[in-house]
Amino acid sequence: MLGRASPPAAASLHNSRFVRMSDLVQTSTEGSVCTLRLNRPDKRNALNADLVTALKGALDAAEDDDSLRAVVLTGTGSAFSAGADLSSLRAMREAGPTENQTDSRHLAELFRRIYQSSMPVIAKVNGHAIGGGCGLASVCDFAYVSGGAKLGFTEVRIGFVPAIVMVFLRRKLGETQTRDLLLRGRLVDASRAAEMGLVTRVVPEDDLDEAVDALARELARETSGSAVALTKQMLARVPGMGLDEALDYAVQMNAFARGTEDCQAGIDAFLNDEDPPWKQGARG
């Protein structure tokens, strides 16, 4: 999505407004930052079809809001997301091939939507992230994790295959770490997850909100929405290309980026020792 070439409308990041609350996903904004909270605390925010649908809808709404510059994904209660719930597992066991494929595609589309969002998406992992819940965190651009959280993919321990997340995890971690996580099916603590590259940063529980807020504000204030969207597009496509194809694509993208409004305005601002428009718009 390249519709973010124009700087966002001026808005104070300290001006908080509540936008919408659904039963399954709470959505709020603070200036240019949108926060989505998985809201099944009694089920440890375990994923089911309804929650996936609600989250996809909330992401689409955020994507269509030109005033937004970053998305934070987190959970209510003590867990980020404990994967699939018991009722979903029972339904999966009883469903036929077509139903299971439809359900799997539903989750794959959610992961793709997060991975390919034009905005940076930050996972604020406030507690355990297991199975599909860990997949949610791993497809975000950044994952800040509470120090006491456990993360991992336990699918092989119940005879299941972590097929969808494998596609993204292989790109993120490489083969060695992906095999370690997926074949053993164990949980790792937050520090080990950071060492493996599964998450970006481990933060003490009491400091998590402040750390994520600071990152979101930095992204909203310091970076061009157009440039971030184009960079994310390249990050998604380049790993599947050969060297010559990737370099040709990079040349085309480099030339295209030079003609965008944000690049022109950013160069002018740099030459005139001024703030670029997106930074000016974030004052307040």
UniProtKB/TrEMBL annotation:
Top-level taxon in the UniProt lineage: Bacteria
PROSITE patterns named among the record's database cross-references: ENOYL_COA_HYDRATASE (PS00166)
InterPro entries: ClpP/crotonase-like_dom_sf (IPR029045), Enoyl-CoA_hyd/isom_CS (IPR018376), Enoyl-CoA_hydra/iso (IPR001753), Enoyl-CoA_hydra_C (IPR014748), Enoyl-CoA_Hydratase/Isomerase (IPR051683)
SUPFAM superfamilies noted in UniProt: ClpP/crotonase (SSF52096)
One function term, GO molecular function aspect: catalytic activity
Family assignment from sequence similarity: Belongs to the enoyl-CoA hydratase/isomerase family.
Species this chain originates from: Salinibacter ruber (strain DSM 13855 / M31)
Protein name from the UniProt record: Enoyl-CoA hydratase/isomerase family protein
UniProt-listed Pfam families: ECH_1 (PF00378)
